[in-house]
């Protein structure tokens, strides 16, 4: 049933217009009315909030098979986020009216989209918990774990070693965790020194995801020395 529903969802989008974007290109700008609902056929798209002081916070990263902007599409909430291509991106776009009409005709489609929204909300709540209560060390470790679970490919039989197959800079991780790039670099350096992570061809390699998950809970004063939010 799930496979059939997913196939039906993709049928909706594959009749839409195909769009191509290069790394760093703006797909939708904050305050703009989106031209439709988008399906990520290839690549990754980040959803950013920009504050008055210029600081950037990455709310979500969409991977192949994802849809956006769902809050605007389903609830008529004004779009207040920037959507930017992380790498080379291929999208399919359909009019909002066509998308909504398809959901009305098929309750299973609506149920599937509702599940996806709730899963996304759950991840967002978890991220907020770390932003509010975690140290910089906790935040970066948790962000890397989350990225490994969402975008990682296992490289050994026991599942310890994972390569995150999207390019993530120190600034990207800082934007995911609401800290400065300098602070993110300090934490990343600590994780590298412990041999928990490494970098290969611009991709982060988690050498031991189980140990990294333990690091999410570690917080000492020493961890936060010279680290500012």
TrEMBL record:
<dbReference type="InterPro" id="IPR000595">
    <property type="entry name" value="cNMP-bd_dom"/>
</dbReference>
<dbReference type="InterPro" id="IPR036390">
    <property type="entry name" value="WH_DNA-bd_sf"/>
</dbReference>
<dbReference type="InterPro" id="IPR014710">
    <property type="entry name" value="RmlC-like_jellyroll"/>
</dbReference>
<dbReference type="GO" id="GO:0003677">
    <property type="term" value="F:DNA binding"/>
</dbReference>
<dbReference type="GO" id="GO:0003700">
    <property type="term" value="F:DNA-binding transcription factor activity"/>
</dbReference>
<dbReference type="InterPro" id="IPR036388">
    <property type="entry name" value="WH-like_DNA-bd_sf"/>
</dbReference>
<keyword id="KW-0238">DNA-binding</keyword>
<dbReference type="Pfam" id="PF00027">
    <property type="entry name" value="cNMP_binding"/>
</dbReference>
<keyword id="KW-0804">Transcription</keyword>
<dbReference type="InterPro" id="IPR050397">
    <property type="entry name" value="Env_Response_Regulators"/>
</dbReference>
<dbReference type="GO" id="GO:0005829">
    <property type="term" value="C:cytosol"/>
</dbReference>
<dbReference type="InterPro" id="IPR018490">
    <property type="entry name" value="cNMP-bd_dom_sf"/>
</dbReference>
<feature type="domain" description="Cyclic nucleotide-binding">
    <location>
        <begin position="1"/>
        <end position="103"/>
    </location>
</feature>
<feature type="domain" description="HTH crp-type">
    <location>
        <begin position="134"/>
        <end position="210"/>
    </location>
</feature>
<protein>
    <recommendedName>
        <fullName>HTH crp-type domain-containing protein</fullName>
    </recommendedName>
</protein>
<dbReference type="Pfam" id="PF13545">
    <property type="entry name" value="HTH_Crp_2"/>
</dbReference>
<dbReference type="InterPro" id="IPR012318">
    <property type="entry name" value="HTH_CRP"/>
</dbReference>
<keyword id="KW-0805">Transcription regulation</keyword>
């Amino acid at each position: 049933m799930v496979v059939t529903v997913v196939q039906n969802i993709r049928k909706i989008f594959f009749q839409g217009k195909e769009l191509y974007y290069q790394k760093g290109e703006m797909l939708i700008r904050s305050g703009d009315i989106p031209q439709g609902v988008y399906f990520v056929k290839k690549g990754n798209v980040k959803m950013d909030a920009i504050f008055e002081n210029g600081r950037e916070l990455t709310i979500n990263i969409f991977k192949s098979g994802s849809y956006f902007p769902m809050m605007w599409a389903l609830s008529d909430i004004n779009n207040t986020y920037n959507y930017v291509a992380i790498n080379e991106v291929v999208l399919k776009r359909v009019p909002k009216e066509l998308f909504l009409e398809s959901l009305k005709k098929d309750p299973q489609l609506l149920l599937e989209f509702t599940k996806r929204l709730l899963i996304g909300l759950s991840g967002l709540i978890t991220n907020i918990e770390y932003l509010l209560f975690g140290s910089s060390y906790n935040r970066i470790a948790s962000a890397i774990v989350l990225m490994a679970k969402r975008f990682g490919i296992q490289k050994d039989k026991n599942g310890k070693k994972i390569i995150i197959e999207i390019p993530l800079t120190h600034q990207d991780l800082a934007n995911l965790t609401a800290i400065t790039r300098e602070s993110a670099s300090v934490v990343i350096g600590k994780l590298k020194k412990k041999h928990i992570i490494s970098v290969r061809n611009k991709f982060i390699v988690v050498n031991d995801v189980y140990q990294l998950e333990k690091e999410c809970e570690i917080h000492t004063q020493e961890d936060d020395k010279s680290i500012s939010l």
